[in-house]
Amino acid sequence: MTAILRLSEVVKTFPGVRALDGVHLEVREGEVHCLLGQNGAGKSTLIKVLAGVHHADAGEILWQGEPFAPASPQAAMRAGIATIHQELDLVDDLSVAENVFLGHEPSRFGFTRRHGAAARTRTILTELGHPEIPPGRLTRDLPAAGKQIVSMARALSHDARLIVMDEPSAVLAHDEVANLFRIIRELTANGIAVVYISHRLAEIREIGDRVTVLKDGRTTAAGLPARTPTRELVGRMTGRAFEYVFPPREAKAGAAPLLEVCDLSRAGEFAGVSLTVRPGEIVGIAGLVGSGRSELLETIFGARVADRGTVTLDGRRITGVGQAVAHGMGMAPEERKSQALLLDEPVFKNMTLASFTGFARAGFTAAGRERAAARRTADNLELRPRDVDRPVRTLSGGNQQKVVVGRWLLGHTRLLLLDEPTRGVDVGARAELYQVVHDLAADGVGVLLVSSEVPEVLGLADRVLVMREGRLIHEAPAGELDEDTVLDLVMAGSLMEGEAA
Amino acid sequence: MIAETALPKAPKYDDNLLRNLGLVGVLLVLVVIGIVTRPELYSDPSWVRDNILTILQQASAIGVVTVGMTFVIIGGGIDLSVGAIIALAGVWSTTLATQSYGAGGMIFTALVVGVAVGLVNGVLIAYGKLVPFIATLAMLVSARGLAAQISGKQTQVSANETINSLATAKPLGIPLLVWILALVVGAGWVLLNRTTFGRRTVAVGGNPEAARLAGINVKRHTVLLYVLSGLCCGIGAIMLTSQATSAQAAMANLYELDAIAAAIIGGTLLSGGRGTIVGALFGVLVFSTITNLFAINNLATEVQNMVKGGIIVAAVLLQQFRYRSFTNLLRRRNVGNNS
Amino acid sequence: MIAETALPKAPKYDDNLLRNLGLVGVLLVLVVIGIVTRPELYSDPSWVRDNILTILQQASAIGVVTVGMTFVIIGGGIDLSVGAIIALAGVWSTTLATQSYGAGGMIFTALVVGVAVGLVNGVLIAYGKLVPFIATLAMLVSARGLAAQISGKQTQVSANETINSLATAKPLGIPLLVWILALVVGAGWVLLNRTTFGRRTVAVGGNPEAARLAGINVKRHTVLLYVLSGLCCGIGAIMLTSQATSAQAAMANLYELDAIAAAIIGGTLLSGGRGTIVGALFGVLVFSTITNLFAINNLATEVQNMVKGGIIVAAVLLQQFRYRSFTNLLRRRNVGNNS
Amino acid sequence: TSNDTGDNAQVRTDTGGDNGNAAAGPKVIIGFSAPAADHGWIAAITNNAKAQAGAYSDVELRPVEAGSDAAAQRAALSTLIAQKPNVIVMLPHDGKELNATGLEAMRAGIPVINLDRAFPSAAAYRLQIKGDNYGMGLAAGQYIGEQLKAKGVSNPVIGEIPGIDSLELTQERTAGFNAALATFGFKVANRRPAEFTADSGQAAATSLLQALPKLDALWNHDDDQGIGVLAAIKQANRSEFFMVGGAGSKAAIDAIARDDSVLKATVTYSPSMASSAISLARLIGQGKGLSDLVELQVPKEITLASETITKDNASKYAKLGF
Ligand SMILES: Nc1ncnc2c1ncn2[C@@H]1O[C@H](COP(=O)(O)OP(=O)(O)OP(=O)(O)O)[C@@H](O)[C@H]1O
Ligand SMILES: Nc1ncnc2c1ncn2[C@@H]1O[C@H](COP(=O)(O)OP(=O)(O)OP(=O)(O)O)[C@@H](O)[C@H]1O
Ligand SMILES: [Mg+2]
Ligand SMILES: [Mg+2]
């Protein structure tokens, strides 16, 4: 097999950051080449250089044997490189078909040929296993997973020789990932090369042919076989040795419930949800994408108004976010960029967003104390870079997530709601986050966790609730469940007594 | 599988349609107020017909400008210089020198001036990286200054009968200016909804980064948007000049505010990425119907103004209310009751 | 816990500082132009001193308004009604009835009117969910209408010597109005940068959803921002009334555009979430220095306007250029050379 | 120009003597349109017209608001024409921009009386009654020239504060002013336009005073904005020059009479022309002529003289101030 793409000594610098510092990469025709690396290692930057978004400061890129320096995204696409970017790059107010063909619309004299575009979109979506997504619908109506499929359809709509996928599985549920792998196999069977980025090592072992590992903008291992033992891969990335590291826990709940949710309902989203969380307990909610878990958390937090039912924290009714926060509830929402972060503000102000009033005296903020507290939290979370004055925008995705979680470590949080806390978070940071959650629980904080990664729910939680189509259908201590059981419940509700849903 | 549950039901209703229905409702309410307050006028069908045509004719120039403005706003910008462009194009096309070239020369001049000023706006914004607000505000000031300079601050009378007759011609019984408005609105609708240019406008305004990643030349497109707005102003300048049979540096005063307000009332998002041409037209019609209502009731200007603010607020609230209650209704119906 | 030394250095340069430096540069350039064109005036130190105070005094009312506007814009809104609020507050506080309560009554009235109108704006926007542009545009129209109604379209002369003397008083040789401007700017700076209110403003404007989910009452805060702007307008109304020793419905015409432009030139993001009070002040000073430059050179209005647009563009470009070249410099130094 | 509104309208009803025109005749419906008043002079125009119409038992005035620009006024007048009044009196935003509307009304058989701002086309009006903008400038220039000459100032520094600079009337006033000064060999050293409002007058005057550390004379086109101009002069603590106003507001006339400020004179541009216009509209509607003239009909054009009000004659003009 010949190398279709070869990078050597590629350097890319942003003001104050050397994001790529001598990267080597060689991708062969028809292979799935995985890129591994911690948050901020430079993976996204690397593929943006390939996609013509950034221009390398130095180094050499050979594409199909020729020197290659795409001046624009269009140039890269014309050369045969299609990219699915990490941040969803869709226009919400265009239809699915319009997004798929944005920039290369089928047209005659400038008039769009909508039926042609719709038909071709439908074909591509069907190939992708999603004939149910209507090409004419506005993209804003799709759930995150649907948007990811549209991004993928867009990449396939080009006649690409190389498709780069930056964490495509981060927002996908279990069965979706299997579907994605089927598509990747079909692509590679046709000689198309795929560069695949993911923080989940199991996926890489399953789909990857070879692996290149980045650390701090440098290639630390190039072209390893995908079956390389986890220990070695993780070691190359971080110096650690394990993927999921769940700290040992002795269940010690038993006090009176901290959070009591009673018969909570919101029309069209979820209904009749009752649950409790005790101090020091970690309760996990498993479920499919779109099963209404995010809405449930937001409603408990008071950010959405319930149609029916009550939420009480320590016996006090919660009816609004302000009150929830005041009484010690915190939430790390699902979409960190749009729901949690002030991207242009420094890290420390983001961390203290919910607690700066507490630091303040008589309405005057205390930036010094805030900064010091934020630094301590940044150390706890091993934030990289550990600079709390840097705008959050310049942090990698995983580190941004740490900032969001860190926000609730600063206040006097007694109940923490976590929605997909490790989405896009690297192996090392993930372990650190798990440790943080455990430490919190050990301090008596109750945690309600939503995650699409079943091992995470099982490994982290004391007690697991399974949610399906807006209802809780099962509850059991984590120890009594295994991955397959949970997946069965999530998909089919097969352990359900009445099969009501 | 994106479960059917995860995909919201296919909309049986359309955001934009509902909004526009809301605006039609507002228009109807205004007409009803007219009928109630001046029944004797409204009892005469030929007066009613004339009145409708008058409203449309009064809306024509600002309507054309609003179409261009809507494109600019959807594309993520704003154009504060539209009134000034009209003044400059109007004045330039009515200088004695230009008038000596006849109607063709005057129209050509107005359009070229509009396009040229739009081009300067676009280049300053796209390549000079100026904030649109500042760039077009600077253009507002400069273009009005230049117009004053060219006209020597005099009102320049158009001696060209062809130009002047544009405002009086009534092919098929409908004023020519209204035909022009209809044409521009129609063309704008097709351009926005049926061409790659329109789709790219939405992309550039809604998510410039995504547009760039999709290979769209965002800068060039931005320039084109301001050129389009300038072109609409050129057309508007000819329309206004023919109506006033003259042009001057102070003409089309504050058109920018009216055009922006009409676009927004019509459902265009000031932050870009969303908007409709038909909504903008309704926005313009609401304003021009309000003016008409005041005129037939002969309200004092200060009362007019006090009431006008209230009507605008009420119109938008009404529109929102209709919209919300309607979607709530649909939602309830789709969901059924959970127990 | 980690030793301070282990932490990375804080950034060595600051966006805002650089921007403001750019504006200071623009001001210096304007002054140099003044010196070159009218050396005989600038050779007289006492004239220069007077001139600086005059520029500051002329900037004082609009400066105060711009501080409020900057808060509103940083908080994600816009206030088109500032000029109209000034007119309404000015007219209301100079009616014969109000004047009979003396200076205290007049000041109180102006402030209350400002706050009340701001409150209405804020409630319409935060709770009525109106787009700020539309809500405050409606308020602009209504408030000017009400002002015309109250004043009977007459210029209302202030017979109150205390009010009128505000514009002539010069404690420590510096006009009282300039002191007021300094006070408001200082208070604004502290409020934005050192208080929880300022923090909330940035959060609400930068990402309202994030602010809400962090427990901030976004709606209430939005209302407070418009109230603050209204309050600044009330202060501005008194300042302007004392300067003109009168008030009328058309006063403070187009102040909204000037205030927004000054804020944006000063580095405030029109989309919210970022901005500086000091920058806004420099923006106001740039405008007022331009006016002064035109006056001492006796430029004709039309030339003035043409040049003014150019100066604004040049100022912003200069500022950007400085900024970019400076950061490029820093970047080059860090990186070394590329092949 | 003051807080007392309305009571000071300039009305003339000569009922006595052998003036046959005063006797009530057939009913005349007069349509009236003037721009939205945000300025004392325009407000006085409207007030005068209403007051004068009220003084006749055989006149019904139908005022239509003309809004804030020419387009709005065109729209308002179309609806007025449709109502077929006997005569229309209008003060156009701009004569040239409203020319077509004048023609439309005349074609519809409604005589049009143009107040103050001339139509270019003679077929567009029946009667033109206006002030003399050029003459106003001439009068101001003449007064200033004479005063300075009397004082023996050879190379005077003269300032000018016009109103809205893009208006043609401003241009005419400035042209007259320059022409008169030229006869003395003088010229304007600095010209800072305001916007007919007191606050803009203050700003313009402050700039002007700053630009001219020494000043001999100042013409401010408009007494309403003059309130701000005088305030600025006081704030700058300047008094080495004298000032001439324009239009002839009550406050200005009083100040001239008191002679306690730099304001020494004002040149009139009286809104009383609106009262005259209504009287003449009535006569036109009734087919009568001016009784002192031999002609059977009202003439086609009347231009009011611009008079110079000084301390000496201020008392005579006091009741004409608006
Ligand atoms: N536009 C930018 N300006 C400044 N710094 C940037 C920019 N984009 C990325 N960086 C920095 O470059 C480094 C590499 O970031 P990159 O996004 O490539 O990491 P990544 O490997 O994709 O991480 P993740 O797994 O979290 O997505 C990070 O330190 C990041 O903060
Ligand atoms: N703003 C919205 N408008 C319309 N429907 C929405 C909106 N937000 C969510 N939904 C719908 O609500 C349902 C549940 O949404 P959501 O995707 O948040 O569930 P989830 O279990 O949290 O899944 P995920 O794993 O993606 O977080 C879905 O049908 C989704 O499409
Ligand atoms: Mg990445
Ligand atoms: Mg979710």
TrEMBL record, chain A:
Repeat as UniProt keyword: yes
- Which CDD domains does this UniProt record tie to the protein? ABC_Carb_Monos_I (cd03216), ABC_Carb_Monos_II (cd03215)
PROSITE patterns in alphabetical order: ABC_TRANSPORTER_1, ABC_TRANSPORTER_2
Domain ABC transporter, first and last residues per copy: 5-241, 253-494
An example Gene Ontology molecular-function term: ATP hydrolysis activity
Q: Which domain of life is it from?
A: Bacteria
State the InterPro entries in the record. Answer: AAA+_ATPase, ABC_carbohydrate_import_ATPase, ABC_transporter-like_ATP-bd, ABC_transporter-like_CS, P-loop_NTPase
Identify the Pfam families for this entry.
ABC_tran
What PANTHER family does UniProt report for this protein, alphabetically?
CARBOHYDRATE TRANSPORT ATP-BINDING PROTEIN MG119-RELATED, GALACTOFURANOSE TRANSPORTER ATP-BINDING PROTEIN YTFR
In its UniProt entry, what is this protein called? Sugar ABC transporter ATP-binding protein
Recorded source organism is: Actinoplanes siamensis
UniProtKB/TrEMBL annotation, chains B, C:
Q: What is a GO molecular function of this protein?
A: transmembrane transporter activity
Q: Which InterPro entries match?
A: ABC_transp_permease (IPR001851)
Q: Identify one Pfam family in the record.
A: BPD_transp_2
Q: What membrane topology is given? A: Multi-pass membrane protein
Q: Which CDD domains match?
A: TM_PBP1_transp_AraH_like
Where would you find the membrane-spanning parts of this chain? 17-38, 59-92, 104-126, 133-152, 172-192, 223-240, 277-300
What are the record's GO terms for cellular component? plasma membrane
Which keywords are on file for this protein?
Answer: Cell membrane, Membrane, Transmembrane, Transmembrane helix
Compartments where found: Cell membrane
Q: What is this protein called?
A: Sugar ABC transporter permease
Q: Which species is this record about?
A: Actinoplanes siamensis
